[in-house]
Amino acid sequence: MTLEESGPIALQFQLLFNGTAESNSGDVLYKQKSRMYPTFKVELNGTAIYRLVHHEFERHFVTAGQLFKACGLTLTEGFFLFELKLTEFEVDFLISQFPYCDIWVSVEQARVMALGLGVETPLELLLSESLDDCYSSDNISRNEIMHNWIVPSIPNLQYSTRALLETSFETVELLEPPNRKIRTQISRSNKQVGMVMKDRAESGLVRWQVWAYEQFLQQQQQQQNHSSIEDTPPILDRSGAIWDTLQGLLSDLQTLGRKGQVMSGRVLSDNMMVGNMPLKKEYLGHSLLLQQLYIAVMVEKVVNELNRVSSTFNSINATATTTAAGGGGAVEEGGLVVDSSEQAVIINKGNTSNRSSSFVEDEGIGATTSTSTTTPNHLTENMLFHDRMDLLEQELYRVKRRTKKKLDEYQFYQDDLTQQINELNSWKSQSDRVRKSERVWMLMLMVCVIFGVSSLRTFYFK
Questions:
Q1: Which residues cross the membrane (predicted)?
Q2: Which whole-number Å values give the CA distances from 174 to 58, 148, 242, 416, in the listed order?
Q3: CA–CA separation, 212 vs 251, rounded Å?
């Protein structure tokens, strides 16, 4: 499902389960601590987004980190973009061996994020208010899950945990009366479809970025509370090496992903956008915590590029193997020759100019683990997030110039209109004065006429 597709994405039922903790533990009693956490899931741009509906949490939570990833953002970029406070999200709910460490936010906060990222329509079902009263919980002693809701599209005779895990649905119904529950059996096998978790590397990446963001906020708070703080000398050389190394590594991976060759002389940018916060190379020399923040962002970008490059090469090998197997050795079709012994793909030189150089289309980022945490494939090649931010800033600048020009024109019209109004008021006041003087003269004339008539009448009638 991509952002271009219209309509809400259908829901799926998934279980978050840390089966590795049980398999690595020799204590039988430890199995009582590994719980299954029921969730609703949608897949946006190849990335799974979960809504936790376990009864013990008393309210639902949504994986904001996966939402950021589906929209091409890192966790740290999402933190700064939405200015999240430390009290507004959870990572592992303070649960040991929690199977899915992420940025868990409330459903209300997730709706705000989806609206800000422009994905409220695809996530309409996942963030629907009709699911607010749906809860599920696992009963470890009886190996079952209890639900207060049901999927009406699944027949009663086929209703089971397996059917829930394998079925996509758009509506759920709450059971009546409210205290009624339905039970489905579960298997504690980690290989079962629909059971997901994050491995140690993915969980560590989340915790690293959360820690860096937390330390950065704490340092800002300390600077606001104390007017004078001892300045630490900037580590300019170290910061420059970190910036150049990570930027160069990311550039090489992106070049490989575009099927290009790694260049010895790389052109690296000295600034980038982390969410809505501008970050420059020289800034890293003033704060060690800012270095940690930058490293966390770049590591996730590198991991995403590695997954994308790995997926591309895997698709090339799979296509070559499939073509060779279908032809039984060497297959020639329209100038394309595949040698199954060496798994080589050769394009005929005569048709090179007419054929597209992209023999295998980029199918997005494939998952390297069983966690369904994949990198989004809706991003345009040669376009990074900070590039899009630069384009957005340029467009905003052009809009600002056009707006300023319009405002200047409106100001000119307003001044002209004000001048005309002032002239009209001046003419009106002058006209009033003229009329007043005319009335005075007319009154004087009338008085004179009356006086003259009275005088003549008195003179003649004596």
A1: 440-460
A2: 17, 6, 54, 67
A3: 24
Determine the 3-state secondary structure of 389 from DSSP: helix
- The bridge status of strand 182-185 relative to strand 144-147 is antiparallel
Beta bridge partners of 346: 337
Pair (231, 298) in one structural domain: yes
Q: Are the C-beta atoms of residues 289 and 212 closer than 8 Å to each other?
A: yes
* Domain endpoint, select from 135, 163, 198: 198
Please list, in sequence order, all residues whose beta carbon lies within 8 angstroms of the beta carbon of residue 16, skipping any fewer than 6 positions away.
36, 37, 38, 39, 50, 52, 99, 100, 195, 196, 197
Residues 44 and 186 in one domain: yes
Token pair, residue 85, equals 């406070």
Nearest CA to 150 out of 180, 129, 186 is that of: 180
- Report how many domains make up the chain: 3
Strand partners, 273: 278
Residue 311 has phi, psi (to 5 degrees) of: -65, -40
| Ranges of H-type helices in 330-462 | 385-460
- Is 192 part of any domain? yes
Percent of the chain exceeding pLDDT 90 equals 35
Whether 188 and 206 share a structural domain: no
**Residues 372 and 390 placed together within one structural domain of the fold:** no
Span 193-221, pLDDT tens digits: 788 999 887 888 888 889 889 888 988 88
> Residue 120's domain spans which residues?
11-198
Minimum mean pLDDT range among 7-21, 393-407, 424-438:
393-407
How do residues 328-341 score in pLDDT, each as one tens digit? 444 333 333 334 33
Q: How far apart are CA 322 and CA 345, in angstroms?
A: 12
330 with 240, same domain? yes
Determine contact, residues 53/40, Cβ cutoff 8 Å.
Answer: yes
- pTM here is 0.60
CA 103, CA 69: separation in Å to the nearest integer? 11
CA 48/CA 345 separation, integer angstroms:
34
